[in-house]
Amino acid sequence: MNDYNYFSENTIELMSVHDCYIESIELDDNKMTWKMSHLDILPEHALNPFNTPKQTDSGLIYFEKYRIVSMKKDYGVTIDSKTKKPIGKPKIIVIDKILREHLDLLNDTQVLSCNLLNRTNNRYKYYFLIDTFEYMIEIEVEFQNAKIYWNEYKNDAWFASRYKGLK
Fold first, then answer.
1. Higher pLDDT, 159 or 101
2. 158 or 76: whose pLDDT is higher?
3. Which of 28, 53, 129, 159 has the most neighbouring CB atoms within 10 Å?
């Protein structure tokens, strides 16, 4: 990936993808690529020379030797506009056999949450909560490597003024 100035490997926990948009997802062989609108790099990251979280330009995340562990579509509940009370029960669809068309649901979406679930034997497992603007998608991804690329730092990250450091 000679098109990028910065390269980082297995450092998802040193960045924030909250409110970052997944522009597209590509699959080939044993690799899944997320093209991101931007990335927010935390000051603890070795490649961030600033003392604050910084937003980058567009970036890429390559998940190598990946496996989709689970994927769910969560339609939540409808809220009555007058009473402000929920109507009905949440509708959750578990996708048992994940096909390419299911991963296409992640194109043009917004990441709301990213959490490390497990790290063993050179394998990582992360949980992502993704907003499609119609419903939420919960996805667990297990992988051997995550390669992350971006070109430049643009601005302070949206949460920079209240960032307290990694816990």
1. 159
2. 158
3. 53
Confidence at residue 95, expressed as pLDDT on a 0 to 100 scale: 66
User: What CA–CA distance (Å, rounded) separates 75 from 133?
Assistant: 10
Local confidence band at 140 (pLDDT 50, 70, 90 cut-offs)? very high
Burial label for 88, CB within 10 Å (0-12, 13-18, 19+), is exposed
| CA end-to-end span of the chain | 32
Question: DSSP string covering the chain, please?
Answer: -TT-SEEEES-GGGEE-TT-EEEEEEEETTEEEEEES--EE-TTSTT--SSS-EEESSEEEEEES-EEEEEEEE---EEPTTT--EES---EEE-SS--HHHHHTTTTEEEEEEEEEEEETTEEEEEEEEE-SSSEEEEEEEESEEEEEE--EEEE-TTGGG-----
